[in-house]
Every structure is written in C-alpha cells, then in structure tokens.
Amino acid sequence: MIGSLDALFAATALFVGGHFMLSSMPVRLALINKVGETRFLAYYSVSMVLVFAWMILAYIRAPIDILWNTPDALLWLPAIVMPPALFLIICGVTTPSPTIAGTSPDDPGRELTRGIIRITRHPFLNGMSLWAAAHLIVNGDTRAVILFAGLLILSVFGMYRIDKRREFLYGADWGPILLTTSLVPFGAILARRTSFDWAGIGWWRLLLSVAVYLGLVALHPFVLGAAAWPGLG
User: What per-residue confidence (pLDDT) applies to 109?
Assistant: First the structure.
C-alpha cells in the first residue's frame, strides 16, 4: 500500500486518472442519472480525498532515488513561488466561482466574476500548477517526478476540461464568463476585458495565505524531512 515507488505511482495514477474519468461527460452523466448529482458529488469528493491521503502518505514513505542535482540558484524557487501559489489556492477555495460543480453561470443574485475570479477563473488549479511545477523542478528524485508531474498534468489539463464541460452544459450562458475572465492569471485584466477587484478579494485572504505559508514552512521539516527554506535544515 505504501513504502514503494510502485505504491506512489498507483496512488498518483488513480488520483489523476480518477479525476479525468469521473469528470468526463459520458461517465459523469451516466453516474448522475444513476445516483443523482448530490450523491455523485459526495462520492466523488470522499473517494478523491481518500486517494489523495494515500498518495501523500505513499510519497512520504517512498524511497528517494536521485535523478538530477538541482543547481543552488534554483533551491529557493519553491520558497518564492509558494506564497502566490497559496494565495491563489486559498482564494480559490473561499471564493464563489462559475467553474465549481453545481454552480450555474446564470444563477440569479450571484456575482460570479468578482475578486480572484477576475485574475483567473481557475485560481485553485493555477495555484496547484505553480506548487507542482516549482517542486518538480527543484526535487530531482523519482518520487517527486511521479507526484508533482501527476499533479501538474491534472491541474493544467483540468482547467481546459472544466472549461469544455461548462461550455457543453451552459452554451451561450458560458460566453460572458469566458469574456470577462481568463485561464492564465491576469489575462483578462491585461486585455482590458475586466478590471482588478481587490475589494472582492479582501485583506483577510492575503493574511490567511501568509499565515498558512509560515505554518507550512514550520511544519515542512517535520512532515517531509527537509526545510522549506534552504540553509535552515
């Protein structure tokens, strides 16, 4: 179950493949028709949380086989990238979004293109992409390649798949969302299709991101056996 690269590969493949399979329209619609959308989303969430826990535990217990030596100049990359990555992730999980399952872009009385959504309509997945890419580059070992390459593939392609699914489900109603938001951060703002909305983000999300970041830095050596900041371990 854990303690080997095979276990880590199996868990990562199940996590990534499970997301892609269960989010594909034929499978998704068939299961929703069978058990209902609420139960489907509940089963989906619980199963992916369990597989994610297995994957992380397998990563911690997997042997470290070095593939390349990271140049000293790159060792600070995760420490620099993680603050904006965490900010995007925290904003993503605390902000109503038109890309979240069960949310309709034409829901009355809801403003779904505020705050972080004006920066990117996929804040959580963009944050995960930054996190995975930075750690993939710096951690030159087999277990890191398996885990972070899998998460990077899931995050990047997941954004495109979500957009396609929303377009399929909502057709023309999805058009205004595409027009006023962007997949790449700041794309819509730089193209002047929307404006920056700090009021919709709020200082509390920034402060929470800083607190979470510092907490992860403190826990990093105890959980993963290496300091988050080079030179501290």
Answer: 44
Where the chain has pLDDT below 50, the residues are 108-109
| The token pair that represents 110 in the structure block | 């809801």
Cα 27 from Cα 50, distance rounded (Å): 20
For residue 43, what are its two tokens?
């089963």
Report yes or no: 135 and 56 within 8 Å, Cβ to Cβ.
no
Cα(170)–Cα(168) distance, rounded to whole angstroms? 6
The SS3 call for residue 181 is: coil
Q: What residue type is 161 in one-letter code?
A: R
Residues facing 141 on adjacent strands: 66
Whether 123 and 91 have beta carbons less than 8 Å apart is answered as: yes
Angle between helices 5-23 and 37-61 (to 10 degrees): 160
Global pTM? 0.89
Tell me if residue 66 falls in helix, strand or coil. Answer: strand
Q: What pLDDT, on a 0 to 100 scale, did the predictor assign at position 44?
A: 87
Cβ 123 vs Cβ 116: under 8 Å: yes
